[in-house]
Amino acid sequence: MNMDTCSLPADFEALEPYVTSWAIGSAAGRAARREASNTEELRAFYDAVAPRLADALIYLDSKQLAEQDTRDRRLMTMLPTSRRDHEHQSSPLPATPSP
Question: 94: which residues sit within 8 A by CB, 6+ positions away?
Answer without folding.
Answer: 39
